[in-house]
């Protein structure tokens, strides 16, 4: 698994979008018991802290110590620096396993082996993610230029799994077809810039060129944004849910 987010861990905690409550509510209707959940690649603990309000105990892991340092501490969450493919817990530990915006970095075979080992017989796995945001035609056009034309070759090859809506990842479970969900939020211009700065491709570009491409895209983005104090922002949610086959 690659660690592409330690460098911008503080920005990640501030600017990354959060999942809607209705997504969690739907997942909770599918989980029979709420004793223990594993939030794999928890990052700053965004999902773990929601799960902690409904489960007795949460085991939250990530390979980035810096990301975990940004996580909200709660009495029923245990944070550990561990890879997705091998964690230090007994067999049949979890009622729910979640992976948010991270599975595309994993060794699928090894991770799924660990899921099958640690999931309880009637447990659930939920693979969650989100695609590129939609704001409005003008802003979307400039963001697409940044995404494709400027940063295109700096995206890791694993990014294609997100572009393909997680439909092409292997998923060896009895799959449940979920409803469609969206992340809906409102941003000011600075929040959008903050979010774009968290892109892994942008960090790769900076390392390669000693320059942030937003420096010379800033005016174009600002003109596309216009005079609105805030704009509505939508992210399509990617979701695969299953039980042990």
Automatic annotation (TrEMBL):
Residues 39-126 form the Methyltransferase type domain. One of its GO terms (biological process) is methylation. It holds the Pfam family Methyltransf_11. GO terms for molecular function: methyltransferase activity. InterPro entries: Methyltransf_11, SAM-dependent_MTases_sf. Signal peptide: none annotated. Keywords: Methyltransferase, Transferase. This is Class I SAM-dependent methyltransferase.
């Amino acid at each position: 698994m690659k660690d592409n987010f330690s460098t911008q861990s503080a920005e990640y905690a501030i600017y990354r979008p959060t999942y809607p409550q209705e997504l969690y509510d739907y997942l909770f209707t599918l989980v029979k018991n709420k004793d223990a959940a594993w939030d794999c690649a928890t990052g700053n603990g965004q999902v773990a802290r929601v799960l902690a309000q409904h489960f007795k105990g949460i085991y939250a892991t990530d390979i980035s110590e810096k990301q975990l340092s940004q996580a909200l501490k709660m009495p029923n969450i245990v944070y550990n620096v561990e890879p997705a493919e091998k964690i230090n817990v007994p067999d049949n530990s979890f009622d729910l396993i979640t992976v948010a915006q991270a599975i595309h970095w994993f060794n699928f075979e090894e991770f799924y082996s660990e899921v099958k080992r640690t999931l309880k017989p009637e447990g659930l796995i939920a693979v969650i993610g989100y695609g590129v945001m939609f704001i409005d035609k003008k802003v979307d056009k400039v963001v697409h230029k940044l995404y494709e034309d400027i940063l295109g070759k700096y995206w890791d090859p694993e990014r294609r799994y997100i572009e393909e809506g997680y439909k092409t990842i292997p998923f060896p479970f009895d799959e449940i077809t979920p409803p469609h969900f969206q992340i809906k939020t409102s941003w000011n211009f600075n929040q959008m810039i903050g979010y774009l700065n968290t892109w892994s491709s942008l960090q790769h570009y900076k390392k390669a060129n000693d320059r942030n491409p937003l420096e010379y895209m800033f005016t174009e983005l600002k003109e596309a944004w216009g005079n609105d104090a805030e704009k509505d922002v939508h992210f399509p949610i990617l979701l695969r849910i299953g039980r042990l086959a």
